[in-house]
Structure formats: structure tokens, C-alpha cells
Design goal:
- The protein is of the alpha+beta class.
- It has a single domain, classed as HIT-like (HIT family, subunit A).
- It contains six helices and 13 strands.
- The strands form three sheets. A nine-stranded antiparallel sheet has the order 3-4-6-5-10-11-9-8-7. A two-stranded antiparallel sheet has the order 1-2.
- Helix 1 crosses helix 4 and helix 4 crosses helix 6.
- It is globular and about 45 Å long.
């Protein structure tokens, strides 16, 4: 990575980036008076279908951190949305990517979600987040430097394929870090969320409804997960090899049993997956 913007600290031994956000220690862990994301709450005073707003406790400055509300229904899971409701979420992700990406101080837009208290979600209302980074994050750089078209060909997934709807595919990665990790990608080359046409947006929404439902059925309980889109940077370069895709990292390795990333993996940065990716895909197909 070339020039590091002000505000980041660089680990001299590893080159890892750290952004110290001590002010976030004062943010509330749980709402005190009802859900702030439900209609009538502090963040959603009016009725809505989908909604976005600036994060009140942003980890990065200059209004580059946003919250995205998927539905006014507090108790809904994403996969319980209707196809049209899920499509509205996809459209909002694309809209916020475009708006943030057009800013001169944003080089990369990361759209992501943490579902469940086990992965740090302090409010259970269905929502995600969007960060506009003033650099291209190292993980995204590493992927961009290694991306080749054959990585996203459905035939390469083989018996790790979970489901395909023609426009988008979902499979378990060959070197999955998480037992039931999934990768979702469009069949045709698309660089970012705003570039998706209507059919591809519908297909992405439909595939998310499908695979997130499978995760909850896998162990007959809500599956905590982390998910994030990797897409084309917004730094003004063309990035012709950038291929939009979605990572989904479910937390559990068995019913009621989380998969922890602990000292052996953090200390070595080598991951030990207790579930074979082929077996994981088979179970997800059955779910």
C-alpha cells in the first residue's frame, strides 16, 4: 500500500492498519427505550420501507459511516422479506455505494452486515452498514491483486456449489475459513453494486433470500453471521478485473456451538476449518 491517510496507525511488524476510535466506548450497547430503528424510534421517526442514516457513533470521520435499515419489521430475518422488499435493500446498497463513491475522500465503499449479538450486533432489528474508506482496505487490495475471471466460474465450484439461479451463484470456497462460509457472485462480470442491471439485482435479492434461509434451517436456529461485499474501488482508476462478490461467514460449526478464531489462528494467520467445504456445501444444499 502506498500512502496511508492521516488517522491510521501502522503495525511496524506486520503492516496491519489500526484506526483508534476511543470515542466509541461511550456508545450504548443496547437501546434503553425501545428500538431506535423501528418506525417512531429516534433513527426512524417516520414510516419507511428501507432507510439509511449517518451512524451516530462512526468509526471513521466525515460522515463516511452509515446505517441501512432493511425493513420496519423488528423481528424479521432477511430471508423472511418478500422478493420486492429484498430488492429494495439491494437498490439501497447500490445507491449508497454510488453516493459515497462519488466523494473525493472515498476510495472504497464497504457494504456489510453483522447479524446476531455473538458477532457484535447491539441492536437486533435487521440492518447493515456502509463505510466509505479514504483508502482501499488491505483485504480488498489483496483480492484485487489476485482476482482472475476463472475464480468466479460456476464450474470451478464443482460439488461445493450450493445453488444457482442463472444470474448469481452461491458456493462454499475451496479454502473456506469458516465451516459454512459462502461466496456469492454474478455469473457475468460486474464490477460493483451500482453496475448491476435490473435482472441481476432481482437475482441477487432472490439468492440472498435462499441462502440466508438455508443458514437458519441448518441447525434449526438463527445463524449469527458476518457478510460483506467486495467491489470495484472508487479511487478513479478503472480496475477492469474487479468482480463484485459477497462473502458470508456464519459463526456456528454445529448447533449451539460457535466456531472461534483463537490464538493458534490469530498468532499464525493460518486457519483451521473443522468442516470439509464439500460436506458443508452438501448440508447447505439439503437445508
Amino acid at each position: 500500500m502506498s500512502e496511508i491517510p492521516a488517522g491510521y496507525r501502522v503495525d511496524a511488524a506486520t503492516g496491519d492498519l489500526v484506526y483508534v476510535v476511543a470515542h466509541r466506548q461511550s456508545r450504548p450497547n443496547l437501546p434503553l427505550d425501545g428500538c431506535p430503528f423501528c418506525p417512531g424510534g429516534i433513527e426512524a421517526p417516520e414510516s419507511y420501507g428501507v432507510r439509511w442514516f449517518p451512524n451516530r457513533w462512526p468509526p471513521i470521520p466525515d460522515a463516511r459511516a452509515e446505517i441501512v435499515l432493511y425493513t420496519p419489521n423488528h423481528d424479521a430475518a432477511f430471508w423472511e422479506l418478500t422478493p420486492s422488499e429484498a430488492r429494495r435493500v439491494v437498490d439501497l446498497w447500490a445507491e449508497r455505494t454510488k453516493v459515497l463513491g462519488e466523494r473525493d475522500d472515498v476510495q472504497y465503499v464497504l457494504v456489510f452486515e453483522n447479524r446476531g449479538a455473538e458477532v457484535g450486533a447491539t441492536i437486533s432489528h435487521p440492518h447493515g452498514q456502509v463505510y466509505g474508506f479514504d483508502l482501499i482496505p488491505p483485504r480488498a487490495v489483496a483480492e484485487l491483486e489476485r482476482t482472475t475471471p476463472d475464480m468466479f466460474e460456476v464450474d470451478a465450484a464443482g460439488d461445493r456449489l450450493i445453488v444457482s439461479n442463472g444470474r448469481w451463484h452461491a458456493w462454499v470456497p475451496y479454502a473456506a475459513n469458516w465451516p459454512y462460509e459462502m461466496l456469492l457472485a454474478p455469473a457475468e462480470h460486474v464490477g460493483d453494486l451500482p453496475s448491476l442491471d435490473d435482472e441481476s439485482r432481482d437475482a441477487l435479492a432472490g439468492l440472498l433470500l435462499d441462502v440466508l434461509g438455508r443458514l437458519d434451517r441448518l441447525f434449526d436456529e438463527p445463524m449469527p453471521y458476518m457478510m460483506w461485499f467486495h467491489q470495484r474501488p472508487t479511487d478513479g482508476r478503472s480496475w477492469p478485473t474487479a468482480w463484485l462478490h459477497l462473502h458470508i461467514a456464519p459463526l456456528r460449526r454445529a448447533a449451539g456451538t460457535p466456531r472461534f478464531v483463537a490464538a493458534g489462528e490469530l498468532g499464525s494467520h493460518v486457519f483451521f476449518n473443522p468442516v470439509d467445504p464439500t460436506d458443508a456445501a452438501a448440508r447447505l444444499r439439503e437445508a
